[in-house]
Amino acid sequence: MPDGVVDGVALLASPLLAAGYAATVLRLSRADAWFGPAGRIAASNYIGQSLITAILFTGLGFGLAEKVPVWGTLVIALAIYVTQLAVSAWWTRRHRYGPVEWLLRTVTYGVRRPSSAGTAGTDRPGGGGRESASAQPR
């Protein structure tokens, strides 16, 4: 094969190979146990992260944007992320939804749903959630 074709194939295959390696490492490391709770309340984490960084870095809060070096910003971001992983795990053990997810469900369905993890019920009013799908007559 000509060198140009080999280089082109390598250029196209490299990102796929990297994604495969990353997926394998995540699969073997049981990353779902670490990142799963944060993923279940992703909207709450996103809003929380935005509020925390706005308070830390903008003039509305401490105004650290110009005062902290790049490496300091990375350390702060990592600290926020690790804290959110821990808080997410704690929260999802006690509640079915994050605060933002609960608010969105309440507004969407028009019914105030309990957010506690031990609460019986479904995702939708009237029993339309996964838990009762087999019990509902069609």
From TrEMBL:
It holds the Pfam family DUF418. Keywords: Membrane, Transmembrane, Transmembrane helix. The keyword Flavoprotein does not apply. Residues 114-138 are annotated as: Disordered. Residues 5-110 form the DUF418 domain. The chain crosses the membrane at residues 6-26, 46-65, 71-91. This is DUF418 domain-containing protein. It comes from Nonomuraea mangrovi.
